[in-house]
Amino acid sequence: MALNNQDASSPTAMREPGEDSTASVHLDADAPKGAVVAATKRKEPPPETLGSIHLRTTVILSFWAIIVFFGLPLWWQTTAIYRADLPLDEMMDWDKGVACRPVFPLRISIEASSLQEHEAQHLLRTTQHALDDLNDFSAHHLRLQLAQPANASTAADGSTTGGLEDEVALTIKVLPGPEQASELQSYSPVLDIYYTPNQVPSSSSSSSPLATYIANQLRTIFAEEQAMIAHLLSTSSAPPERSPKAPPPEVAEALAKWTSRSMKYSPTYHLTFSLFTPTATPSSWDIETAIEEHMKPLLDTLSSISNFTIDTQVQLYASPGVSGALLKKEDLSGFINAAEWPLSPSIGGAPTINFILYAGDMEVEGGGRSWLIPQWGGVVVQANVTDLRPTMLIFSNQLLALLGAPEAGSLPLRLMTLIRVRSAGLLLKASGTLGSLARLTRALPSISIPQSVAEGVYTTIEHLRKACDGLGGKEALRNARIAEEAAEKAFFEKSMVGQVYFPDEHKVAVYLPLLGPIGVPLVMGLLKDFKAWKKRRSAI
Amino acid sequence: MPQLIKYLLLLICLGFGIVSASSDYSEQLLLRPLHPSSLLASFNFQSNASWESFEQQNFRYFPRSLGQILQFANTRELHLRFSLGRWDAENWGARPWGGAREGGTGVELWAWVEADTDEEADGRWLTLTNALSGLFCASLNFIDSTRTTRPVMSFQPSNDHSNATLANLHLLHGTLPREVVCTENLTPFLKLLPCKGKAGISSLLDGHKLFDASWQSMSIDVRPICPEGPGDCQIQITQTIDMVLDIQRSKRPRDNPIPRPVPEHELRCDTTKPYHSGDTCYPLDIAQDENWSMTEIFGHAMKGSCPLMDEGATPVCINVPHARDVFTSGGAVERKDESGFMRCFELAAEQDFEVVLPSQDLPERAPLEQPLLYAERSFTGYGQERGGVQAILTNPSTTEAVDFVYMESLPWFMKVYLHTLKAKINGVDGDVIQEMYYRPAQDRKRGTQLEIRMRIPQNSTVVLNYDFEKAILRYTEYPPDANRGFDIAAAVITIGNVSIRTTSLLLSLPTPDFSMPYNVIILTSTVMALAFGMVFNLLVRRFVGADEAEQWDIRAIRLRLLAQLRTIIGRFKKEQKVVKTE
């Protein structure tokens, strides 16, 4: 270390004699004699050869070259966070609703075998006009068509084939009758319209009472579905001009309730039927036959949307969370004794819907004995468990409500509405997730994005595209489901979370002990050499 | 041995005899005073469900949460144990249920999983442990591949598996010796019972008393049974809780649990001692005649009987001589059996039930069964690197030899030297090992599995010894509180249907200073910086004569600094003057 003192290349050592003397003159003013003597006693070293100066410069530059061209890239490579390329703009487009315009073209087939061809055509045209006039929501569009004669025969006996069902949302049968009336068939998507002979529109008139009547009927049938879809769109981040005008407050409230109570969509649901008894009796119920008779038919119908698995249990000595024979409305939320009742969700991954039969003598204020718990299940209070039929009927209604089916209409229509509403909901949800992922990626530059996330995003977009193109059918539901799953998986990728919480303090603590002691001599060496070089240049 | 057989028969009567009864649910509490001043309380709950209802998931007495897990993980037979404390075999004799319903300290789980391949079995085992972990609020999810073994000789599946199933069954066994069993494990255990601790013997179970016991064990066994042949099979769940309560300790009031000396007038002295006088006393052992009641021991009386049982069932039994006075509350019917040491009670459904045993001098005691084998295990060796394990196994019987399987599952960081395994019989090298199954450890993948079949002749002691080396773990592999040491699971000794577990061991490994990584970074950086600085300076500096070098005179620097300071101060003063003149 003593060598440091003999540093010849330092700027002060390279000073001109004149400069040195000025310094000593300045010092002379107040310094004791000795100090000045020491400074003037110094002998100048012999001038350096050009070769050794070059050698030194080369050494310093080669060190820096290694650091810049090898060290830095190596450090960059080893500490870089892998960020797969994401189509961020496209993802934001989906989120904003620019990429997809959800349109639900519903084909409605008119079957008018009693009318002449041109009369039927005319009826179709005028009804379509009337419909278009009534409809203020472009995303939900009813398109009429005349039924093919071949289909008419199959539809006549009330059983539509599967292929036809996919295409046509509703079949209208225009039949002559004693008076104007309409009837929705309960077990198939068919609307019977009866008309009196004088209502047959003349080909000249642009509107007819029959056409207006049919249009009004159709509108009534699809009003709930339209309101649901409109509500979905308005609550999503879609641009506001797409959404129709705000629904009346009571409808809005009903729709908000519908959103909050329906379960998240899943391809499989697990149903748990539980009998809770406050004492030791009854300790058994005839649940197998009850399910077989009253629940299975409904579940079979629903199988096109979701599958269901079932288990049942009996629990004795179960006291509810509230006491008293008369339950107040505000007590109902506390009725389920979550701490003691073993209602753990099923472990298979499918969401669990709980149906609880409480065999106690209790009544809700105002007379009811059953209620629905949003996104969770339903409760029936009934002391006698010998006849399970009424209970099962209540459970069936609660199941449909929990799945998000509309309240009015015939069962097939409700199910088809459910498919459309579900696919729209999934589509919007997946789009929203994509948008969140894009925003997250932009907001956190230090987060790593593995390839699997990028793959998930591409899968999502591909299936979203397919779902968007074919909205309204079952295929769209399937695609929307895949898209939603892929989007959720990409968003909740585990390896993305770990990197976020690696604080900068740790990096400083790791780098500083090494970079400090090495960096200082390097930088000082470079500076000194640079100064010496400048001096040499000015001397020449 | 005849005594033992008698005892086993008794247990079978109590535990399994009810299987053939018509009801699908039964429960039984056996109270047995133990020497000195302890009470063994054995709770047994058993329910059966038909195989069809189980497959269709229509649960009645079988708990739904557990049933779903078993089906989801394709588990055909399950055994789960939560244990705490040490069974004092010298004083308390043979273990309840022949040791078949207890596990090593902490949590022990073994199950027969149906799967086509080993990998599939591992996957289902993982599902099972994770799901059970959630159900029982225990860290069962920490049973990973390093803690899982596949015992070969020690455990046998139930006899009632169908042959097709049996071919695809995989036995997996895992232990968590570090797990502290506590109230949060009891609550889900009680939830599985049909009467839920609200009625029947389960109403006596209370976390405060149970986990205050000297020894306790909770068990859950699920297995198939086919009482009527292979066509008519059922699934049976047996839950037991055994605890040894210190009577004196339990009788202390809960609000004032500090032990106090016995008042002088209650003190019973041994008058035969030569030093006995008015102020010196050698207290007599009063354990046998201890007076106690159910309320004192369990905190409250029993809340009636669980109504799901058959008419005429006797849910409470006490193992005391017939001469002992036992008072019960009204409505209970006493039934004494012929052995002379057992009486059971039939209870009224809706009435609280209380048992009181007053203080009584009796020459007779209920016989204590002698265990088939005494086993203890400890560490030998010293230092941070090498250690050893010593197991002392004693056959107390004077007439019969005992055959058994000794199983150890050790963590991978105990590197066993199998060649050092020595068995000494009565102090001399002997050939007692008949068969051995050894599966060596793989670092960070699996632990050591060692199963030894041995035969100990009558009245002999075998000392089993082996050495091991302690591995050094990686920084992140140490648990929190690493200086406490690592718990090593109990050894399992299987003698036919009887099983014995040794205590678990505490292994201390060399523990690093946990600020180590940063120190290493600093030290390495310093060394590297030093080396680099020297090389760099040697390369870029110019060497000149001592008199030619620039002189660094510290006085000159000081003077120069002083001069600069003065100029600054002077300038400042001048400025002030200027301001004043203005």
UniProtKB/TrEMBL annotation, chain A:
Ranges of biased composition (kind: Polar residues): 1-12
Q: In which pathway does it act?
A: Glycolipid biosynthesis; glycosylphosphatidylinositol-anchor biosynthesis
Q: Which keywords describe this protein according to UniProt? A: Endoplasmic reticulum, Glycoprotein, GPI-anchor biosynthesis, Membrane, Transmembrane, Transmembrane helix
State the annotated membrane topology for this chain.
Answer: Multi-pass membrane protein
Lineage, top-rank taxon, reads Eukaryota
Cite a single GO BP annotation: GPI anchor biosynthetic process
Q: Which residue ranges does the record annotate as region Disordered? A: 1-28
GO CC, sorted alphabetically, is: GPI-anchor transamidase complex
Q: Where in the cell is it found?
A: Endoplasmic reticulum membrane
Quote the InterPro entries the UniProt record gives.
Answer: PtdIno-glycan_biosynth_class_S
Name the residues that span the membrane. 53-76, 508-527
The record's family statement is: Belongs to the PIGS family.
According to UniProt, the name of this protein is: GPI transamidase component PIG-S
From TrEMBL, chain B:
Superkingdom classification of source: Eukaryota
InterPro entries to which the protein is assigned, alphabetical:
PIG-T
**Alphabetical keyword list:** Membrane, Signal, Transmembrane, Transmembrane helix
Keyword presence, Transmembrane helix:
yes
Residues crossing the lipid bilayer are 518-540
Q: Name one GO cellular component term.
A: GPI-anchor transamidase complex
State one Pfam family annotation: Gpi16
Instruction: Please state the span of the N-terminal signal peptide per the UniProt entry.
Output: 1-21
GO biological process per UniProt: attachment of GPI anchor to protein
Keyword Membrane in the entry? The reply is yes
Give the source lineage, highest ranks first.
Eukaryota, Fungi, Dikarya, Ascomycota, Pezizomycotina
The species is Coleophoma crateriformis
The name under which this protein is listed is GPI transamidase component Gpi16-like protein
